[in-house]
Threonine/homoserine efflux transporter RhtA
Amino acid sequence: MAERVGQVGAGALSASEATDYAGQSRRNLAGFGIALFSAIVFATSGSFAKPLLEAGWTSGAAVGARMLGAALVLLLPTLWVLRGRWHTVSDNWKPIVLFGVFGVAVCQFSYFQAVQYLDVSVALLLEYMAPILIVLAAWVVTRRSPRLLTILGAVTSVVGLVLVLDVTGAKGVDPLGVMWGLIAAVGLAVFFVVGAQQNDSLNPLVLTTGGLLVGALLMFALGAVGLLPMRATFGTVNFSGFETPWWAALAGLIVVAAVLAYVSGILAARALGATLASFIGLTEVIFAVCWAWLLLGEMPAPIQLLGGLCIVAGVILVRADELRQARRLTRRARPHSATAEIHHL
């Protein structure tokens, strides 16, 4: 009995600690909901873009309009964040440009190119090979073999990729679409790497808006010199079972799939941390399948769905290994910091 009382006393929380714990739990729950909402709205981009592309829009025009429209909507809150700190843009122009060129322009353009040849969900699954590409690139550059769980995750994702391609099935895939999907994965890998860099002087909203502006300017500049076809049509666009004006699909692409998606993604990362938010973001693949089925009438073959599960499982294993390694390093650092504090005293 005394032992039981001692355990309760040792584990009891003060009133302030209990209040802080409850507040943190509520924030985590709210962050989880925001992250899930972000995945849902991000998943609509392919389903909003494909009818525009089928109606005669080029990928360059659709991507440029999406990025420019979203940047203009986010411009006022970004200017508010920057008030009195304009130098942060010039101090961080390199990550902003890198993010805009590869993480935004290359990634989105390649994805929109891919959905012209592939189902939306298949194109997105190819793009989500990005974390595996990061692992392979790190292996080549550092010449250090990844940990076992990371290797297992990479192998699982590669097996999933083979199943998604369904090279022997009746549905099959277009090799050109596969190429564009993998290029989108390279752009997304840059998106992850730049976005994960710790930089207290660069607000995430500034990075997002700056990247969108850089990407839009790049698209329209390439179009102006004739290197990128820029064509748009202004009639109706066809979804599965209904039609809408072109501007309605474009508004969905800008407001829902870009502005709401990016802003909620930033809020989720702040509430949960980048690692946990990125885990929940993997549900985007599932929601993309649902949106494509509801809006476009597209459904991958069963073997492709199995492959998609393998890709997501592989990425989860890689992310779980990263999280475990980060916790291990944190535990190792704590004794050193405690010892340093004792010596200081």
Notes: The two ends are 39 Å apart (CA to CA).
